[in-house]
User: What shape does this take?
Amino acid sequence: MGIHYDYKSTKGNKLMEKQAKREKKLAEKKAKRLAKEGPKKEEKKSPALDPNKPISLDFLTNPNKE
Assistant: This one.
C-alpha cells in the first residue's frame, strides 16, 4: 500500500502548500521590485477642456497656456 495509498490522501495538501509557496515568492518579488523603484510619483493631469467654451485660434497657438 505504502506510497500509492498516501498519494491521493495527501495530494490536496501538497497542492495547497505549493500554491502558498508560489504566492509567497511572487509577493516577495513584488515587494523587492517596488522597493527598488521607489515611491511612485503622481503626474499632474491637465484639466479637461470645457465643452461649453469655444476653442479659439489664440487658445490653440498660445505657447504659455497653463
Remarks:
- The chain is about 60% helix and 0% strand.
- The chain has a mean pLDDT of 82.
